[in-house]
Write a structure and sequence with these properties.
alpha/beta; Rossmann fold; 7-stranded mixed sheet; 5-stranded mixed sheet; 13 helices; 12 strands
């Protein structure tokens, strides 16, 4: 077995840390400059959620609520009823698990125009089970009226923030902070709520991915291409409402299907794609890359992604497996039934 060191340098060692642009914080400030209704609430996590930028520029519109997420969500709901547009910030796991009843009863149920901004998705933290949001998409998907968005990286954060603002109703925005600066030739990605983005086209296999797993899916597609397997890769940045029609079209064309997510395979992207196919009676082999039915542990992100099967090679292995199971069906008989 290959030996992997549990590297803690990204948490304990600060001497070699390079300054990375804070793409979310800057995007929120640009939005707030144009719209005075925007307010920011934070649960004692201003620097980790990049809201210290907002605090310093708009101190009268920034509210530090302390480590009291449930109360913060309730306050945000009240502010929304008075005409503000609250952006509410904490770590993903605290906004969802800890404040779930308040999110359900005071945000989702009344369709409050509250934007819930969560950081540290899935296994992107070494702080252990208490901080690892492996079920947040499942929790937010289950709430009526809730929109769930996860941009693929810093190149899509600005578009995600603007899309959340333009959406009339509650939004859960799942963010991973950038670890490196975008190169000068990086194209800013659009984000249209409810529409997928096709980043690569092929006829043999389709991979639906969200968040940090998109780049890994694209790398897996390149490896598969070298073996003569051509893959369509899809950025599913909006997990609810999901693009059922395009998903069904792509699966019916390619046949074999993989989903890849930094989340439990229960209740997340994989289940959303499977549900879309099932409701249209599309019988296709689907294999999911994600966290199995288990909690994780403390460790650096590379260590955790490798241990829990969320690396590029894991996607390649799943793809080869699902191709053997593939049974193509015609889409023509059902496409007219898709709304």
């Amino acid at each position: 077995m290959r030996k992997i060191n549990l590297h803690l340098g990204d948490f304990t060692e600060k001497s070699n840390v390079k300054l990375v642009p804070r793409y979310y914080g800057e995007a929120l400030c640009r939005l707030a400059e144009r719209n005075e209704k925007i307010v920011a609430l934070c649960a004692d996590l201003a620097p980790p959620t990049e809201t210290d930028l907002f605090r310093d520029r708009y101190p009268d519109r920034f509210f530090m609520m302390g480590i009291a997420e449930a109360n913060m969500v309730g306050v945000a709901s009240g502010m929304a009823r008075m005409g503000d547009v609250p952006f509410v910030h904490s770590f993903c796991v605290f906004l969802t698990r800890r404040a779930y009843d308040q999110v359900a009863m005071q945000v989702a149920y009344p369709k409050s125009n509250v934007k819930l901004i969560g950081f540290l998705p899935g296994l992107t933290t070494l702080l252990g089970v208490s901080h690892q949001a492996i079920d947040d998409i499942a929790l937010m998907r289950a709430l009526p009226n809730m929109c769930v968005i996860e941009p693929c990286g810093p190149e899509q954060i600005d578009s995600a923030v603007n899309a959340a603002m333009d959406y009339d109703g509650p939004v859960y925005l799942r963010l991973n902070r950038a670890e490196t600066e975008l190169s000068s030739d990086t194209k800013i990605k659009k984000l249209d709520i409810g529409k997928v983005e096709i980043t690569r086209k092929g006829d043999d296999l389709v991979i639906f991915a969200c968040g940090i797993m998109l780049r890994k899916a694209e790398s897996a597609a390149q490896i598969l291409s070298e073996s003569g397997i051509e893959t369509t890769v899809v950025n599913v940045h909006t997990i609810k409402p999901i693009d059922d029609q395009k998903i069904c079209e792509l699966v019916s064309h390619c046949g074999a299907t993989i989903t890849a997510e930094n989340h439990s395979i229960i209740g997340g992207l994989g289940d959303a794609v499977s549900k879309a196919l099932n409701e249209k009676n599309i019988s296709i082999a689907v294999n999911r890359v994600g966290i199995k039915d288990s909690f994780a542990e403390g460790g650096s992100t590379p260590y955790l992604l490798n241990k829990y099967g969320l690396e590029t090679q894991d996607i390649v292995n799943k793809a080869l497996k699902v191709l053997k199971q593939n049974i193509k069906v015609s889409y023509t008989s059902i496409k007219n039934d898709i709304p």
